[in-house]
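Async update (no meeting this week)

Hi team, since we skipped the sync, here's where things stand on the single-chain job. The sequence we agreed to prioritize is pasted below, unchanged from the tracker. I ran it this morning and attached the output directly underneath so nobody has to dig for it. Comments welcome in thread, and please keep replies under the output.
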Amino acid sequence: MLSKKSSVLRIVVFTMAFFGAGAAFGAGQDVVTGMKTFLARDAVHPGETFKAALRLSIGPDWHINANPVNDDFLIPTTLEFGEGRNFMVVNTLYPPPLPARFEFSESEVYVYAESALIGVLIKVGNKVLSGIYTLKGALTYQACNDSSCLPPETLSVEFEVKVVDFETPTGEVNAEIFSRICFDK
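Output:
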């Protein structure tokens, strides 16, 4: 019969081996090779709802799970923001998934490969003063290759937003990026 100490040691060794193997599997790999944020306007007014986007570049031989996922065991890609008084996320729009088959799954799974463009609708508070604000968020994703998956990872994301008074005109920017996101869902 195994002692309690021996059982705990086996659990610790198994856990270290499992996560160590996952870390070694992903070590030195660039899954998300780039992130870039975009706004649809060069500045915004208090009370206005504006469009923002996050473009991800995904390394070769990798994919990340889509949102939504179609398997309960997969972790979806999410972009989330902390609660704030000055800005409120109205909606987050994830790109259409790519259905794919892999060794680790008996059925098709929904993924993003090469790149993904996530859209966000954000409302500026009515009493926000003019200035430059940094909206901080977190991108969480689970990366996989053709045979297995890594543990989920979370990356920090920042959007810099310029708020101006009502007398200051604003203009549209990054039209090409925003033409690829359907905000009318």
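Quick observations from my side:
The first helix runs from residue 4 to 26.
The helical segments are 4-26, 175-178.
Reply here if anything looks off.
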